[in-house]
Amino acid sequence: MSGAAKTFPVPALRAASLLLSSSLCVFGAGAYFRPELLWLCGIDITPYEGLTLASLGVIHLVGAVLLPRAVFSHTAAYVYGAVLMAAAALIGSLCLSRHMAAHGGPAFVTTDARLESASNAPLRLAFLGDVGHGARGRAAIDRQLQSLQLQTRISAAFLLGDNIHVDADYETAFERCVRTPFEGLFQGETPVYAALGNHDYSGGYIEAERLDPRLGMRGRRYYRWTAGDGLCSVFVIDTETLPRDPRQYRWLKESASADNSTWTILVGHRPAYASDVCTGPDAEVCRILASIFGSQRSCDLLIAGHNHVYERRNTSVPRQYALVVGSCGKAQGCLWPLDSDRLAQNCDDKIFVYLDISRERLSGHAVTSRGVEIDRFEMRKQVGSAISPAPGSPLKTVLLGI
Q1: Looking at residue 120, what is its pLDDT?
Q2: 321-325, long-range: CB within 8 Å, 24+ apart, which pairs?
Q3: Partner of 113 for a Cys bridge, out of 171, 223, 295, 339, CB 3.0 to 4.6 A?
């Protein structure tokens, strides 16, 4: 190289590259494995963006270590920078393609939605999971819901995701999976609200579902439903994107912290707590919810689907129950492992759950399509005091009639 060529001091360039690459690696790895820590600081970065930064840091690190000992010309520096930028663009596009392939497209940006019911009377809420699966038995559950309506009006019904799981256009799929099997529910005055599941995403139905007035989402993937002047709040979350969605994370954390309802229920598709059957619990969802709610009882019940079984169990938070209600469409037989936290289970029947809620008492009932109550539990509290769950009564048989 001629003496007239401009050069850079190699040690300084190598040191700067090492510092930049190590910083990118650490920051990107943190964003990939524990993004909620950055979200709390107001840094909106997804795990896939963190993976991009970490990969770019690795490329920088390799370049810094392999820099020649000789002087580094301007031309070589420009080439080196261009290669790094091209690599970053390639990695970013690959990460985005992976994200879109797995989740049906970029996450929708939504704001807080508070869907209110004005009634101040005691509530009866119904929860149905994975109704898009299976072909028979759902109409029998609809008849059980109508039987309950004769006793006490159902204030709202919540679908727990995987609402549609057929290969057809949206209207045909909706009629086949939801509208026809639950004709009595939709013909009545009970409002229906839905959460999104993995099959709603993979089937490409999320856009149509969130805009469908029959599913009550009003264009939102996550929202809060309240009733009765602070009697009950139901937070419906999108568990498919929650581990990668800083806006949803902060909305849930801030809304749950500000919520003063007597009873608080969290509804989503993937369970944070579940037995090791079917797909088991979702570790990412569990980690995110633990970072939001901590060890304090910020909600009374966590209700999810996804696993095609029914179970009720204790969580890591005292005086809190987690329900898996994923067998409304089909039941998936399994062998239950020993688990001291599990309080009730069933993998043979199609089951839905309903809750009766008043100021001092919440009672839950798990009912099969044949009208057999296979689990009952009760939670009591004085307004302004701690909750006190009463012992449940699994496998208690009560015929509700068809």
Answers
A1: 55
A2: 321/364, 321/377, 321/379, 321/389, 322/271, 322/272, 322/273, 322/274, 323/127, 323/353, 323/364, 323/366, 324/129, 324/271, 324/274, 325/127, 325/128, 325/129, 325/160, 325/351, 325/352, 325/353, 325/366
A3: 223
Q: pLDDT value at position 386?
A: 45
Compute the mean pLDDT over every residue in the chain, rounded to the nearest whole number.
78
Instruction: Name the pairing type of β-strands 387-390 and 373-381.
Output: antiparallel
Per-residue pLDDT tens for 6-40?
A: 544 556 666 766 777 777 778 777 777 777 677 76
| pLDDT tens digits, one per residue of 381-400 | 865 444 455 545 444 333 33
Residue 206 burial (CB < 10 Å; 0-12/13-18/19+)? buried
The one-letter code for the residue type at 31 is: A
| Stated pTM of the model | 0.75
| Residue 202 Cα to chain centre, angstroms | 15
| Alpha carbons 345 and 50: distance in angstroms, whole number | 39
pLDDT at residue 237 is higher than 70: yes
The Cα–Cα gap between 78 and 122 comes to 70
Residue 265 sits at φ, ψ, to 5 deg, of -125, 135
pLDDT of residue 111: 37
219: left (phi over 0), alpha (psi -120 to 50) or beta: left
CA distances from 45 to 34, 86, 224, 322, 377 (A): 11, 21, 24, 30, 41
Phi, psi of 267 (to 5 degrees): -120, 130
Q: β-strands 342-346, 310-314: how paired? A: antiparallel
- Rounded to an integer, what distance in angstroms lies between the CA atom of residue 352 and that of residue 247? 31
**Are the C-beta atoms of residues 387 and 357 closer than 8 Å to each other?**
no
Write the pLDDT tens digit of every residue in 302-311: 999 999 999 9
